[in-house]
Amino acid sequence: MSENTPVTKNTRSYQRLIHRSVAIFTVSGLLLLIVYLSLPYAASYGIKHWFQQQGIETAEIERVQLDIFKGQIQIRGLTTGAGSGLSIARMSLLTDWLPLLDNKVIFHDIDIQGANISVQKSDNGEIQIGPLWLKNLAKHNSSTQTSEALTVISDSLNITDSKVDFSQKKLKLAVSISNLTIGDFSNQQTEQSTPVRFTGTVNNAGISYSGAIKPLADIAQASGDIKLDKLALGDYMHLIDSMPYDVTTSLSGEFQFDASYDHKADAGKQLRQKIQGKLQLNKLVIVDNQNAIQLLSTDVLAIEGIHVEDASRFRANSVSADKLSLLHPVSNQKAATEQLYLTRTENVSLSDVAYVTDKALSIDSIVFKNTQSILHRHKNGKWELIDNYTRKAERKAESNTPPETPLAIKINDIRFIEETLISLDDESVSPALRSKLKLDTLSLSQFDTTSKDKPIKVVVAGKLDDYASINLQGNLLPFAEKTNADIKGSIKSLELTALSGYATEHLGYILQSGQLDTNINTLIKEDNIDGKIELSMNNLELKPGDKEKMKAMTEQISISLDTALSMLRDSNNNIKLNVPIKGNINDPAFDYSDAINQAIGKAVKKTAVSFVAYSLGPFGALIALGDLVAGASQSVNLKPVTFAPGESEFTAKDTEYLGYVGKFLNERPKIRINICGIAAPTDVIALTTPKVPSVTDDQLLDLARERANVIKGHLIEEYRIGADRLFVCSPSINKQADASPEVTLGF
Question: Is the pTM of this model over 0.85?
Fold first, then answer.
C-alpha cells in the first residue's frame, strides 16, 4: 500500500485494538509489578499487624523477601523489642501455593538462624514464648479456624546458632542450638517417624542427639543415640521431692534409648523405656547438710554396659569409682578435718550389677584397691561419723511407721587387694588405744541376705602394728532366724601394752609389758555360743590401776590377779590359759566383755590352782579348795606345815613337802608367799609343867612366830628363795578345841 492509499474503516479499528491491548497489558504489568514489589511490604505489615493483635506494638522486621513464583519467603531481623525474649536474625522457607486450596500447608527447607527465644511456664501451666502467651494464640486461632482441619506438612526444619531460655518455678534451662534438624513431619500422619538431629548445649553441658520421634501418635515414641558432656546434675537435684542430700557432679555418657509414653495408661505405667550405654560422673559429692557430713565423694564414677528397662530394672557390666571417700565431716576448718574420714579407697570396682527398684540388688564381685579406714572413738564413747547414722536407724526402727520390706542383697565375692589399712583411735579408755591393722587378705564370699542356710565365708589375714600377725577364717549365718557361726583363728606376738586401757577398764590393772599369742575357736549354734580361747602371755607385767576394778576382780577369783598370774608363770615368765566362753548371745543379760572378763577370771583361778596342785606333787590335793571355791578367802592356801604340840621343828614328812614348795617357788620366781604361824590349845597342854604351871598368850604367840621363821629359814637356806619373796605374818592363836599347831602357806 502506497502513502496515498486511503485508510479503510477496518484498518482503523484494528489499530485501535492494538493500542488498547498494549495499554491494558502495560497497565496490568505495572499493576502486577506494583503488587509484586509491594508484597514484601505487605507481608511485613501483615506480620507486624499479627503481633499487634497479640498485644505487641514493638515488632520490627529489617527485611522481607518474597518470591511468589518459587514460593520462597525470607525474613531478616525480626524482633519484638529489646528484652522481649523473641528475635530471629534470619528465617527462610519454601511453600507450595496450590495445596492451600485443599487446606494444606506444605513447607520445604525451613531454615532459621540466630534465633533468641525465651520460654516461661507459669505456676498455673500457662506458657509464654517471648512476649506471646499461648492462651492468646489459641483464642485467636479458635476464632479463625475453619471446619476442616488444617494439614501441616514439613520435609525439613533446620535451626542453627540459636538460643532458647526456658524457665519455670523450679527449673531453668539455657539451651544453645548449634544445629537442630527435623525431617519429614505431618500433623495428620501421626504414626510417621520424624528424624531429629541436635547438637548444642544445655546449661553449658554438651548434648547431641540423633534419632526419631513420633510426638503425635496415640503412644508417643522416641528413640536414638544421646551423648552428654559435663552435665551438672546438681542443677536438677532440687526437682526431686524431699531430697535430703546435696549432690554435685558433672555427667558424661553415651546412650541408646527407646521410649514410649501412653497418656491413656494407668499412672506409673505411662512411660516405658529401654536404655543402653555408659556414663561417667566426675567429681561426685553427696553431702548431708543436716548432720554436716559428706556421705560420699569420688573423682570418677564410671558405669559401663548399662541396661535399663522401665525405670525399675537396672543392670551394668561394671561400676568403678576412683578415689572414693565415705563419711567425711564438712567443716570450714579444712586443715583440722582433712584427715578425718571413715573409709577411703584408691579404686572400688563392681562387676555384673543388677538392681530391681526396692526389691533386690545383686553383684558378682566387689574389689577394693588400696583402702584406708579410720575408726575414732571419743572419750564419751561415741564413734566419730558412725553414731549419727546408727541412732537414726534405731529411731526409725522404734517409730510406729510400718516396717519396710528389706532389700534383698546378693554379693558373690568381696575382696580387698593390695594395701588395706585400718586405723583405730579409741579415746574412751586410758591410756587411749592407737593402733593400725594392715591386712594382706580380707574377703567375704556368698553374701546373701535372703538365704538362711548359705554361710558367708570370711577370711582375714594381716599385721597389727607391723609385728603382730592376725589370721581368722570362718563361716557365718547372720541372716538365719538364729545366729550361727564357726570362727577359727590366731593372733601372734601382740604387744599387750596397746590394750592397757581395756585392761584397766575391765580388770583394774595397767599392762606394763607383755606379748600375747592366742588361738580362737568359737562356735555359735542357734544363738548359743560355745567358744574356747587359748591364751599364751609372755613377760606379762602388771601394775595397779583402778582400785575398785582390782577389788572386784580379786573378789571374783579369790586372790589378787597379780598373785594368780604369778602362780601361772613358768621359769621363762610365760603364762598359758584356756578360756571357755559360753552363753546365749540374745540373752539381755549377756554381754561379750562381761562374759570374756568372767571367763578369764574363772580360767585364771582354775588354772592357777591346777598349776599349784601339780607342782606340789602328792601334796597338791591338800590345797585349801574350800575357801577358794566359796570365795571367802582372799588367798589360796597350801597344805599347812604341822608341828608337834609345844615344838618349833617340823617333821621329816613336812621336809619332803617343803621340797615341793621350794621347787615350785624356784620355777615361778614372781610368786610371793605368806608364812603364818598358829598356836593351838594343845600347845598349852604341852608347855604346862610343874615349873610352868600356866602359859600366857604372849608365850604362845612367840612359839607361833618361831615356827614361821623356821619355815622361812628352811626355804632360804635349802632352796635359795629370796627373803623378799617370803613374808612372815603376825602370829595368831586358834583356840578351837580341835585346832592343830601349824604354819599356813598362802598366796
Answer: no
